Amino acid sequence: MLAITGGGTGGHLCIVRSLAQELQARGHDLLYIGSTSGQDKAWFENSPLFKQCFFLDTIGVVDKSFLRKIQALYKQVLCTQTARNLLKKHHIQALISVGGFSAGPGSFAGILSKIPLYIHEQNAVQGALNRLITPYAKCIFSSFKSTEPDPKRVYTPYPIHHSFFENARIRTEVRTILFLGGSQGARAINEFALLCARKLLKKGLKVIHQCGNLNYERVANVYKGLGLLDQVDLFAFDLQLVEKMRQADICVSRAGASSVWELCANNLPTLFVPYPFAAKNHQYYNALEFAKEGLAKIVEQTHLHPDHLFNFIEWLETPKQEGLEIASVSQGLRQKVSSGGAGQIVDRILEQIES
């Protein structure tokens, strides 16, 4: 049996799901170790992907006050012993850590139990936990070129659900814009969409706006007050988000790792607004790799202004030898990404533990 640990937020949990699906398809039984905090239980409590799931009483350590940090570390220590017992009881052959505070007890337990440890680093900047456990890992899997070099690092495509590739298309004109506020709702992007909507509609563009469950009523009321509610495709959250992406020609989004690679797989040119309080500003560096290659634009939240969006549209509508700039960007995104990331990671792990 193999174990996967980590989570807390959607980006980490997407990787858990992708790797679990790949391993299950190859006939492997799986154990999951997550946390009672964050989104872990919502994703996997009743998931058929795992033989058993365990959610330990842990909280994050980073960006806490001194006393809260001590409390968090104490919980990590207590739960490490629990995780160690679980790994022993289920005869775990290898442990995959995807990072996040949920991964702490399982990762430390694996190290103490001398179980082969594999790390998936989602972001362009290595997370605090992953940095701490890297010396004990067999491999660190990464998709960003900008991540720090390490002899253990193996570059693979990012594990992306096949639906993002299947619904991809090369964009040739700007007719529809998608604002991605995320399932929880990114207030800055929601406010930005409200600020830009009237002018976008006047230009004849269609507006699709995902505002998050917590913000739907407030955002809908603002659109209603502006007299625009019936002209905007507003929704809280949709599990079939890939269909909304397929309809869009450009996007405004945060720059979490899963988001940037899913948008890339969909060939959707994006204006990234990185979350400024992400650990080590990793969202900025996630987007920066795409921006440096001319495949995206970045605007920091403190400087966010409608002019940035309209300048982005103007740039994408610049005539080229063959069509507009948007087609060149969309084609570049298609060339940057490839499918099969989860398969390559699993191949490497199984090759090592079965040899």
From TrEMBL:
GO annotations of cellular component type: plasma membrane
Catalytic activity field: di-trans,octa-cis-undecaprenyl diphospho-N-acetyl-alpha-D-muramoyl-L-alanyl-D-glutamyl-meso-2,6-diaminopimeloyl-D-alanyl-D-alanine + UDP-N-acetyl-alpha-D-glucosamine = di-trans,octa-cis-undecaprenyl diphospho-[N-acetyl-alpha-D-glucosaminyl-(1->4)]-N-acetyl-alpha-D-muramoyl-L-alanyl-D-glutamyl-meso-2,6-diaminopimeloyl-D-alanyl-D-alanine + UDP + H(+)
Pfam families in the record: Glyco_tran_28_C (PF04101), Glyco_transf_28 (PF03033)
Domain Glycosyl transferase family 28 C-terminal, residue spans: 176-322
GO molecular function annotations of the record: undecaprenyldiphospho-muramoylpentapeptide beta-N-acetylglucosaminyltransferase activity
EC number annotated for this UniProt entry: 2.4.1.227
Domain Glycosyltransferase family 28 N-terminal: 3-141
Any single GO BP term: carbohydrate metabolic process
Pathway it works in: Cell wall biogenesis; peptidoglycan biosynthesis
Membrane topology: Peripheral membrane protein
Keywords: Cell cycle, Cell division, Cell membrane, Cell shape, Cell wall biogenesis/degradation, Glycosyltransferase, Membrane, Peptidoglycan synthesis, Transferase
Protein residues bound to UDP-N-acetyl-alpha-D-glucosamine: T9, G10, G11, N123, S183, Q283
Cellular compartment(s): Cell membrane
Function: Cell wall formation. Catalyzes the transfer of a GlcNAc subunit on undecaprenyl-pyrophosphoryl-MurNAc-pentapeptide (lipid intermediate I) to form undecaprenyl-pyrophosphoryl-MurNAc-(pentapeptide)GlcNAc (lipid intermediate II).
HAMAP family given in the database record: MurG
PANTHER family: GLYCOSYLTRANSFERASE (PTHR21015:SF22), UDP-N-ACETYLGLUCOSAMINE--N-ACETYLMURAMYL-(PENTAPEPTIDE) PYROPHOSPHORYL-UNDECAPRENOL N-ACETYLGLUCOSAMINE TRANSFERASE 1 (PTHR21015)
Listed name of the protein: UDP-N-acetylglucosamine--N-acetylmuramyl-(pentapeptide) pyrophosphoryl-undecaprenol N-acetylglucosamine transferase
Gene source species: Helicobacter ailurogastricus
Name of encoding gene: murG
